[in-house]
C-alpha cells in the first residue's frame, strides 16, 4: 500500500501519540478527549504550512489568507485539557511556538509594558504626550511566535482584563494562533469583574478567532489509579506529624551540598527571604508563603530555585482568609506547572481545606463603602467566592496529583 503523504503523516502524529498512551495504559480511552484530539490534529495539519510572517501587524491584510482558527478548550478539573494541549504543542513542527501558563504570560506582558514605559524620556513641563506601550509589546510577541498555547486561561485581575482586549486585537491582527485551556467557557471569563463591560469585546474576539470545545467526561483523572507518595501530606492533629516533617527534611537535605539556613531571592528588584533552606529544598510555613503580599512572580522564582518545598501549618481556608487562599492557589498553580514537589502539614485533608462559608467580610464592606460600590456588592466577584470556587477545585485536584508517586518521580528528573 502507498505510504501516507508527509503532511498527512505529520497531522496524524498527535493522534498516534495519544493512541500509544492509551495502549500502554498511561491514559484511559476517552471519547471526549478523542474528539478534541481530532480537532487539534486538524489544526496541526493547517499550521504545517502557516507562518504569521505573512501577516504584518499594520494594514493591507485584505489580500492575505486569514490565519487558521485556534482552539479554546474548557471543562472541569482533571479532564485532560492540559495533557492534550501539551501533546499538541510537542507535535507541532515550528520553532515559533510558545507554551506558557496564563499567569506567567501576563507577568511577562506587564514586565514588557513597564520596561517600555521606563525607556521613555522624562516628561517636562508643558510637553505632555500619550504613549501606548501595548501595541509595540504585541509586535514583539508576534515576532517571536505564531502559535501561543495558554494553560489555565483565567482572568481575575482588573489590570489583566484591561490589557487583554488591546493586546489580543493586535496579536490576532498579526496572525498569532491561540490554543488555550480553561475551567470556564469564554462567556464566563472575568464574570462579574470590575469594569467588565470593557472586557466583553475581548470575549467576542476570542470566540471569533477560536473554535470553542467543552471537554467534560465527568472524570477527574488526577484522582484515579495512582499510588500515593509515602510522605507528602500530614495532618497537624496527628501525633508526631511535625517530627515526621523534621525527619524528612533532614533526610532530603543530607543529599544536598549546602548548609541549612535562610536564602534571599531577588524578584523584580525586591528581596524575598525564606528562613530555612538547604540547596534545592525549602522548609516554609504557610504564613511565610501566603500570609505576605507575594504573587505569581515570587512563586515562579521559588520554583526556579527549589525542587521540593515543605509548607507547614496550612489552616482551613475560610472567607476570612480569602487573600491567603488566593495566594495559595497561585502558589500551587505555579509549583504544579514547574513540577515542584510539595510536602504539606495541614489542618484538614486536601478535599476539606477550602471552606466556602464562614469568616467576616467587614473589610470588604468598608472598602465597598469607600468606593461607593456597596449596592453592587453581591455582583462583584472581587468580593465573592465565585471565582475562587473554580480556582479551589483546580487546586484540590492538583494537590491530590502532587501527592502521587508518579508526580514525585517526575520531580526527581526535573530539569533545573
UniProtKB/TrEMBL annotation:
The lineage of its organism: Eukaryota, Metazoa, Chordata, Craniata, Vertebrata. Pfam families: AFG1_ATPase. PANTHER family: ATPASE N2B (PTHR12169), LACTATION ELEVATED PROTEIN 1 HOMOLOG B-RELATED (PTHR12169:SF19). Belongs to the AFG1 ATPase family. SUPFAM superfamilies: P-loop containing nucleoside triphosphate hydrolases. GO terms for cellular component: mitochondrion; nucleus. Keywords: ATP-binding, Nucleotide-binding. One of its GO terms (molecular function) is ATP hydrolysis activity. This is AFG1 like ATPase b. One of its GO terms (biological process) is cilium movement. InterPro entries: ATPase_AFG1-like, P-loop_NTPase.
